[in-house]
Amino acid sequence: MKYFLLAFSFCMLTIGIEAQDYDSYFINKTLRVDYTFSGNSKNQTVSLDQLCQLPQWAGRKHNLPGLPRQGNGQIKVTDLKSGKCIYKDSFSTLFQEWLDTPEAGAVRKSFENTFLIPYPKEKVVVEVSLRNKLGIYVTAIKHTIDPNDILIKKKGLKSIPDYTVVHKGSSPDINKSVNVVILAEGYTSSEMEKFRNHAQITCEALFSHSPFDKLQDRFNILAVETISEDSGVSVPRENRWSETAFHSHFDTFYSDRYLTTTNVKDIHDAIAGIPYAHIIILANTDVYGGGGIFNSYTLTTTGHRDFKPVVVHEFGHSFGGLADEYFYGGDSFSDTYPLSLEPWEPNITTLVDFASKWEKLLKPQTPVPTNIDLAGKYPIGVFEGGGYSSKGIYRPAADCRMKTNTCKDFCPACQNAIEEIVKFYTE
């Protein structure tokens, strides 16, 4: 009993310290920081674009200096006066994916990126670091922000868009919930009933998968009716260009099914004033495809028969930081993961540091690597093929939602990784 009381007291003390830390350094608003990432495969730069203040903070107020995933990049906030790290987050970007394409060796390009951090009370130093080919996070920009700067724009105070609550979690504390907003892309004003239906289907699809099903009380999901002038989205290979809310298009990096948008600021402008931390964009088209970028957005199509498995797969990328487990010859991203380096994603490994991955989930005497013929005996193993490469990269299961659309669920390793990140945000 004494041990229980001591443990309970320590737990309550820890919660109190975390809450106090937030209240000591931040107010209940969001600082939106917009950057321009530019360069080529040899040299990259990050430049500050603008700063905006949003009316409330919908992220976590605990685990402030922790990281749920290492990511391809990290943003760190340090209190200028004390030098203490008071907030960190990780991310990936379309820009960093582009760096692995042949085009990046021939031309310089720029990409928008937006990050949300709690609004500081005093001056802070914000540092953005990008992961290089050696797995080292290199500072790309480091700058001081004065929260009283008169040039910080106030957004989300007027003309706040209407939204529909698609799913409401059980916690009355928004900062102990995962706050997701669903946006419409390529839906005209007359197609909003269709969008609302697709938003509901998205919600149902997510919660039909483990571990989202048992953790759904920790999610708040809103739908915002962002109107497009044209119905459908752009398909460059068909010379089809549509005027849509976020100007998304297929053929990203000349990959037919890769659907993305580079208009990141437009996305955040459209939902300024709404409490959100994660974004799903539904594209009104029957063309197959989608994309998911960690801590940026999920973008997927709603008219194709595989809408439901694809939106769950892409949310696995953007929310869970999961890697693709499929592979095939001649893929344009086959050099994405250097075999001498352990990937940061939790569901693939090069065996450089497998102990940090799903090793604890293996049955005793499971061979590492695991021959695919033994998948029936070892449903969790170390099977070769993943991360776009057939050799040298390994996945946890013969099949998974992160591998095929026909698999009914995430593999146990992916389920464990998703549960970890939900608890990181909500506990």
Task: Give the helix/strand layout.
Elements: H1 2-25, E1 26-39, E2 44-54, E3 73-79, E4 85-91, H2 94-98, E5 109-120, E6 124-131, E7 137-145, E8 153-154, E9 163-167, E10 178-185, H3 192-206, E11 219-224, H4 264-270, E12 278-283, E13 290-293, E14 297-301, H5 307-318, E15 383-386, E16 389-395, H6 412-426
Parallel strand pairs: 2-8, 10-11, 10-12, 12-14
Antiparallel strand pairs: 1-2, 1-5, 3-4, 3-6, 6-7, 9-11, 13-14, 15-16
Helix pairs in contact: 3-5
Keywords:
427 residues; alpha/beta; Immunoglobulin-like; Collagenase (Catalytic Domain); 6-stranded mixed beta sheet; 4-stranded mixed beta sheet; globular; disordered N terminus
Structure, described:
With 427 residues, this protein is α/β, with parallel strands linked by helices. Among the domains are: 23-154, Peptidase M64, N-terminal domain (Immunoglobulin-like, Sandwich), CATH 2.60.40; 163-321, Collagenase (Catalytic Domain), CATH 3.40.390. It is built from six helices and 16 strands. It has helices at 2-25, 94-98, 192-206, 264-270, 307-318, 412-426, and strands at 26-39, 44-54, 73-79, 85-91, 109-120, 124-131, 137-145, 153-154, 163-167, 178-185, 219-224, 278-283, 290-293, 297-301, 383-386, 389-395. The strands form four sheets. The chain has a six-stranded mixed β-sheet. The protein has a four-stranded mixed β-sheet with strand order 5-1-2-8. Strands 4-3-6-7 form a four-stranded antiparallel β-sheet, covered by helices on one side. Helix 3 links the parallel strand 10 and strand 11 (219-224). Helix 3 (192-206) packs across helix 5. The radius of gyration is 21 Å and the shape is globular. The two termini are 24 Å apart.
